[in-house]
Amino acid sequence: GSAIIWDHDSEATMIQDVRIRSIEESDYDAIISVLDEWWGERQMVAMLPRLFFKYFNQTSFLAEIGDKRVAFLVGFFSATGNSEAYIHFAGVHPDYRKSGIGRLLYSRFFDVCRKNARSIIRCVTSPVNKNSIAFHSSMKFKLEPSSEVSGNIPIHRNYDGPGEDRVLFLKRL
């Protein structure tokens, strides 16, 4: 179907044929081939192994316009916190950022969470990813407190290993 998408000038425009579907293992190669480019040449491929496309496709989604993959979200339900879900990775093609497609993907994930009694959503990002921090804040995610703060952003030092600092988010549905 079509969806109202906000363009860079904040004017409502209609983009035809925005399709959101469950991600499939067959999408893996296409997504991995553009991942580092979408992240400004940061090395991100190792953070998104094929297993997410194979085993979490009921909670992971792809946005397409025509035959072009323009955004994705990889999420899953927590195996230890029965009211929690986690967004592992989400990306939007640079030409489609600020279009609303990311919000559509998050909304789809939130809908699946609600239907499965998951009311707490968690995710993390790198402190250098200012766009991600701004996006999650605009989506009403709360920053998880930390004893270390940089520019009003709580930083969890070495969260994903030595030198791998993270910003943690939580949203209650």
Give an overview of the whole structure.
By secondary structure, this protein is an alpha+beta fold. The protein is 23% helix and 34% strand. The chain contains four helices and eleven strands, in the order βββααβββαβαββββ. The strands form three sheets. A seven-stranded mixed β-sheet has the order 3-4-5-6-7-11-8, with helices on both faces. Strands 1-2 form a two-stranded antiparallel sheet. A hairpin with a 2-residue loop joins β9 (148-150) and β10. It is globular and about 45 Å long. The protein starts with a strand and ends with a strand. Residues 1-14 have low confidence and may be disordered.
Tell me the fraction of residues in β-strands, as a range: 25-35%
Mean pLDDT: 90
Overall geometry: globular
Question: Gyration radius, to the nearest Å?
Answer: 16 Å
Helix content: 10-25%
In the sheet with the most strands, the strands line up as 3-4-5-6-7-11-8
Largest sheet: 7 strands, mixed
What is the number of helices?
Answer: 4
Distance between the termini: 26 Å
Topology pattern, helix = H, strand = E: EEEHHEEEHEHEEEE
The chain-level structural class is alpha+beta
Would you count the extended β strands for me?
Answer: 11
